[in-house]
Amino acid sequence: MDFEDTPEEARFRKEVREWLRQNKPQDWRSRFNDYVQDIEVCKAWQKKKADAGWSCMMWPKEFGCRGATPLEQIIWNQEEGDIAELSTPFIIGHGMAGQTIITHGTESQKKRFLPPLISGEEVWCQLFSEPSAGSDLAGLRTKAVRDGDEWVVTGQKIWTSLAHIADFGILVTRTDTSVPKHRGLTYFILDMKSPGVEVRPIKQASGASDFNEVFLTDVRIPDSNRLDEVGRGWQVAMTTLMNERLSVGAAFPTNVEDILDLANQVHLETGLAVDDAAVRSDIADWYVKASGLKYGGFRTLSALSRGQAPGPEASITKLVLGTGRQDLANFAMDLMDQAGIVSDGDLAPLGGDFQKIFMRSIGNRLEGGTDEILRNIIAERVLGLPQDIRVDKDVAFSEIPTGTA
Amino acid sequence: MNFEFSEDQQMLRDMARKFLSEQCPMPRVRQVFEGEQHHDAELWNAIAEMGWLGTAVEERFGGVGMGYLELCVIAEEMGRHMAPVPFSSSVYLAIEGIKSAGSDEQKSRLLPQLTSGEVIGALAVSEGVGPVDASDVLSLKDGKLSGTKWPVLDGESADILLVLAREDAGQSLFIVETKSDGLTKSSLASLDPSRSQSRFDFDNVSAERLGAPGAGSHLIERLYDRAAVLFAFEQLGSAQVTLEIGVEHAKNRYAFGRPIGSFQAIKNKLADMFVLTELARSNCYYGAWALSNDAPELGVAAANARVSATQTAYQCVKESLQIHGGMGFTWEANCHLYYRRAKLLSLAIGGERVWKNKLIDRLQVERNSTSKDESDRAAA
């Protein structure tokens, strides 16, 4: 048992370091504020990586990629460091759309869409969730009707990151309401510049706007942009979501150092917070969970290093971090006592990070699979428990009852 | 990255699991639990013959000369099968205590007897309700020990005790034979009678010194840290098996016309138990790494593994009982045996509160030394 690279891994790491040393722009921070305003900075770095084969490096060589192992991808991630922030606009394209096109696309679709997706010249978004279809994605209502060689699409999508800068979107629609819900879906590639596509930012409960709503009104999509067969949209969407679960997960810090910092700053009636028995107990509770995630990550790497497929770790990580960080922020603000409510970055400890987490973590427990859905996935796919009874399973979509909320 | 047990170690686990499934099924545990014997002597001898008692003991002292990683693997299986034998007392505490504090002569004399299983050792530290402290420790006067120790885990089976006592130099460790003159043993009723608990009254009892005078509390702290990793693996085995029987029951028990495992209330419980078990497993592995490398991180790693495994074992067995419904609350069902054992494991060598405090203390030490390094660098 050790934490060392194998000789092959070490060789690969050296190659990555050498390339980054020669090619990573030292001044990127000064030229980058956010990915909307400075999308060209993002695209330039992405292109440079793609030309050298470091973009989407696990994909096959026929697409100009490396066919790298998952562990090599992780080594790259470790070495790339914080300039990875510039890759934010390509998350959907690389994490979800690309793999879906590789699995379900025709040769001409692959040829048209993959090269600019890999190089970052074209940005992608994901048009799945709707106001009345979140966890129950297969209940979506955006309608696509065939009209000759085209489809006419009308409906509303929500929680769409990157929609405002995206060139293309992966879109699931309902094409048949007379069959049970999973069988009446069809999957498309949507040109976001098409007439009838309107993108509006959502103001979240936290006050920030990380997501959009997308309204589709009589949008015309050529049939050549359909992925897989009519009515197979659910199967295609599953490919996308499996990849989403692999790419979501380690995206958030555990903030375990931050809570120790805070407990070393705050003075309670009894003295320094970190010396208070109740405070120590709560910190220890979170510390052991955070450590479990950290060392779980090492176990995952070891499994990958041995050529094993990744397990349910991503679901575990997201489940623990979502609710854990919310509770941690709640606890941290309680330590600050009456001042805990103040979010002013100049006054609040640690620049107001815990106040931000308190608000943002609401969404962390929902996005990319709610806590409840993740528990179901673990229970059914890992522990092998039987599925819940689904009353809408064999009913035509048009006959399924709807609520008022 | 190689943060996993090796193939040989995994083979050892498979072998240990097969051996204990055959030699230590639950009816056998129940025989000790409900019977008069203090431990399963036949199982003890079989385990000794397998060489497990000397897993992490050098060959020249009668061991098999493997290491702590192998001992962790075996510990998990001992926990999984609820083995009714004084393994943790004799191996993690007595053998480890003598390994770390004994003279060469003591090691040559005592370790072969302990690793062969003919002598059973136990640790006598606690003196009643609450953690032990300097003011109430049994004391040494004129070379003889007087005072009281309780509870002593596996005390009814023990031939020798490692005893923490007070003398002028501070706290020190001693070895005492349980048949010594002046030593009175009484068996204590406890929640898990598959492992005995005793009270020992010392009245001018002869004792053999183990380690330097005054080194006792330091030796115990180090001993507890190493034992904490091994206990954590036993607790992990216990958590894993209670999760598994909970899943099995949820698949096979029908209510309202379907398996109860199809209800989300049950699924969510089991998913949470699984998540906790995975986190505890990762923490235990880190503990195993620190233990086997005698790493400076052992203090944090041991406390981290211990707290994580203690919480997980309790959550898993508690919710597994709940999933079993009324049947789980009967004497005949095995659930309560796991519940009792989980509590025993979580209190031996100190409870959750104690280990949480150790964890935070050690994180603070780490933190202060890091910030000192930083200020040293800044000054330079």
SSE blueprint and pairings:
The complex is a heterodimer of chains A (405) and B (380).
Chain A: H1 7-23, H2 39-51, H3 70-80, H4 91-104, H5 107-119, E1 124-127, E2 143-147, E3 150-158, E4 168-174, E5 185-191, E6 197-202, E7 211-222, E8 226-227, H6 233-247, H7 256-265, E9 267-268, E10 271-272, H8 277-305, H9 313-335, H10 353-364, H11 371-382
Parallel strand pairs in A: 1-4
Antiparallel strand pairs in A: 2-3, 3-7, 4-5, 5-8, 6-7, 9-10
Helix pairs in contact in A: 1-3, 4-5, 4-6, 7-8, 8-9, 9-10, 9-11
Chain B: H1 7-23, H2 26-34, H3 41-50, H4 68-80, H5 87-101, H6 104-115, E1 121-124, E2 139-141, E3 144-153, E4 160-167, E5 170-177, E6 183-188, E7 197-206, E8 208-210, H7 216-252, E9 254-255, E10 258-259, H8 264-292, H9 298-328, H10 335-347, H11 352-379
Parallel strand pairs in B: 1-4
Antiparallel strand pairs in B: 2-3, 3-7, 4-5, 5-8, 6-7, 9-10
Helix pairs in contact in B: 1-4, 4-7, 5-6, 5-7, 7-8, 7-9, 7-10, 8-9, 9-10, 9-11
